[in-house]
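Sequence of Putative enoyl-CoA hydratase echA8 (Duganella phyllosphaerae).
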Amino acid sequence: MSAHVLTAVSDGTAVITLDRPRALNSLSLDMVRAVTQTLLAWRDDDAVQAVVIRGSTEKAFCAGGDIRFFHDLGRATPQQGSALVEDFFTEEYALNHLVHHYPKPYIALMDGVVMGGGMGVAQAGPQSRVRIVTERTRMAMPETNIGLFPDVGASYFLSRLPGRLGLYLGVAGATIGAADALYAGLADHYVPVADLTALEGVLSSGGGDRLPGAIAAFAAPFKAAVGTSALERNRAAIDHHFGAGSVPAIMASLQADDSDFARATLAMMATRSPLMMCVAYALQEQGAAMSMADCLRMERAAVRRTLENGQVIEGIRALVIDKDHAPRWEPAALADVTEVMVRQILAPAWPDHAHPLRHFHGAA
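Predicted 3D structure, token representation.
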């Protein structure tokens, strides 16, 4: 078990606390393994009726995977990545699949930063999930900013958002708050920070299958206090521009619009990997008609191909290591991204019988 994952069980409610505050609770391989082992044990434990997952710091629920780990190991063998990096993605996606199909109420307290891998352990399947946000919530799938694409099942859960919100969040990598998360369907309830102590009382009161209803009743009075959603305000523009049919068409549509939203979105997309924006778009287009299991298998193969081309190492270098914010993307311009390049990333990396996630199941 990891020193950065704390667990407790009381009155039928089990709690997982991600406890790596200096790294904003970003997931290491040991943490992924510890959470997985814990959820597997609790799944068949009659003494556990509901699971709560939370972060140990007000700054973050979970900021994603440990990208410094990817950079350091990836540099050792930049063309093929490393065995540990491969293990991380395989085991992280296994955890995402487990969470999606968890048979007991699964409550994610998404206070603070919730990004990348943090979304993967929060966006459980619709039959079990309860996702709580606060005014400190800062949610994003920003992977195109580091030369990757939204993964951890994002081709499933982003592609199912209303209109073109999923493409906006996944391709552009925008950061949203509580009101936006609720509007998009990426959260269920809003609880102000000042009332989190009272919420703890609800979470620790037991009740098993009744806990989601108790949370909903507790959070109901705060619904009007969440504020207005920028996504809702800009929904018509998002659906118009991101419904253009391709990333180049989206950019052209935005360039023809002199609004503040269009200018801000163009500036944001100018910093993203051109190739990975196109891959992110293609993954959502395919994922919209696929099960969670198939989406994770597709993403796992795409990660393998992406690790081979070195985009992730360069993106992490520019953003986190050297912090020059000047990634040398390959190709550097969107106009130079070809359909062949995108298809190469999405091509199967293993025969079906040898895929590391071949045992995943589930029609949804």
